[in-house]
Amino acid sequence: MRPTLVPGDRVVAVRCRRPRPGDLVVLADPRLAARTLVKRVAAVAPGAVSVVGDAPDASTDSRTFGPVPSVWGRVVYRYGPRERAGRLR
Question: Whole-prediction pTM value?
Fold first, then answer.
């Protein structure tokens, strides 16, 4: 499976309160709060969201830092680079 996003992609995210498994989400890196991550939701439990990367061999995700308490939003659109622009599902 090819990763949905590649370095350099620019995305738009909308606020979401209840992410669902399979959603691409934006969250603060639990190891460094100033850093933002985009990951896919693997599972949702009360008070915790498990996230994984689309390239598991090269991804730092919940397998490394555990479930996160919340996410900022769900990624809905890629606007750059222009040739890759479009809606994300």
Answer: 0.89
- Cα dihedral sign, 50-74-87-29: negative
59: left (phi over 0), alpha (psi -120 to 50) or beta: beta
Between CA 1 and CA 87 the distance in angstroms is 18
Helix (H, G, I), strand (E, B) or coil at 65: helix
pLDDT digits (tens, 9 = 90+) for 21-76: 999 999 999 999 899 999 999 999 999 999 999 888 888 999 999 999 999 999 99
CATH (residue range 10-82): 2.10.109.10
Q: Determine contact, residues 54/35, Cβ cutoff 8 Å.
A: no
Distances (CA, A) of 49 to 41, 61, 65, 75: 7, 11, 12, 16
Token code pair at residue 85: 């622009």
Q: How many other C-beta atoms can be found within 10 angstroms of the C-beta atom of residue 30?
A: 15
